[in-house]
Amino acid sequence: MASYRHSTGFAMTISGLQELRATPTVRTVANNFDYIGGLLSLGRIPGEDNIAYRNRLFDVQVHPGGPLYEGVVNGLARSLGFVREKTLLIDLKSNYGYNLASNPRVDILANRVVLYESWTNPDTYTIDKEIYFYDRDSAGYYLEDLVDEINSSDCFSADIYSGIRTNLHSFTLVRGTSTTFVYNQLIRGHKMNKLLFANLLQDTVWFEEKDIFTTEVTSTPSSAGEYKIDYTNGLIESYSIPSGNGRCGYKAASFPLKVDSVPVQVFSLHDEDFTEELFRQELQESGSYVNGLPNGEGAEIYHQLFDETKVFWGE
After folding, report:
1. Cα(11)–Cα(239) distance, integer angstroms
2. Cis-peptide, bond into residue 256, ω within 30° of zero
3. Among 30, 72, 182, 258, which has the minimal tally of Cβ within 10 Å of its Cβ?
4. pLDDT band at 283 (very low <50, low <70, confident <90, very high)
5. DSSP bridge partners of 290
């Protein structure tokens, strides 16, 4: 005769000889959050409560997924239940209201942070500081150490957002840049125009009305065609009054730069900043470096790729 008794799960004794134990499976009862998740193609993580699930559903709009780097990072992090959060704030050092960097730019790359004192295009730049933090087998840089390195530069400063761990690994920073491209901004019919962004990059501003904006001057415009640009504050002063229908374009440095972090790393084998960490760097007679044979880490990664990918040589 079988007897029954209550336990942490339940226990059942059969004929006094055998005992079977089991723990009940906790199942979340579907509700409106699951309905919305179905519309957004974002399922609930097993055991996830409504509050955590709601936050991930909101995150679909805040950090949308996509086929490019940021979209892939956003999608992977959200699917795994990780949180992408604002982590680092990089700003400009100034003196009497003017930036110490003439054309500032910051790039967060796959293996380093690059602080440019002056940047106009990929071929014309001056680097203030270059901080390599990529190291697969160690922290590379903890966030607090990276901040100290940035603060030691002549032109830039950094701070950590409140609530962020200072011993966070710096290679979890999401890649990005401070440079903003504005291709088409309307210029009002007024002698003084303020652009959408400050910290304009020199030699990047262009105007549609060439007769109004002919010659750039450094003092107050005094004749037709002259104009003055306050690059730090994004102000344009002209001698003649624009029509109000003309447009301009420019590049600007968007500061302070807000840098996110997320514990998901995505690398491309076409990313030069990443592949240079996988190959021995060979110095050429020209003074430049090229990728040589794979190093230990590169060989390991390529072997893993070959193991996971169907590759056939020959016909």
Report:
1. 91
2. yes
3. 30
4. confident
5. 282
Contacts of 132 (CB under 8 A, 6+ apart): 111, 112, 140
* Sequence-distant (≥ 6) Cβ neighbours of residue 186 within 8 angstroms: 244, 245, 246, 247
Residues 83, 92 contacting (CB under 8 angstroms): no
**CA geometry: angle at 282 spanning 278 and 283, to 5°?**
140
Which pTM was predicted? 0.73
Please report, rounded to a whole number, the percentage of residues in the chain having pLDDT higher than 70. Answer: 88
Length of the chain: 315
- Gap between the Cα atoms of 235 and 224, Å rounded: 18
How far is Cα 45 from Cα 49, in angstroms, rounded to an integer?
9
Cα–Cα distance for residue pair 211/233, rounded to 1 Å = 24
**DSSP structure class, residue 312:** -
Three-class SS of 267-282: CCCCCHHHHCCCEEEE
Cβ atoms of 270 and 206 within 8 Å: the answer is no
pLDDT at res. 4: 41
Whether residue 193 contacts residue 256, with contact meaning beta carbons closer than 8 Å, is answered with no
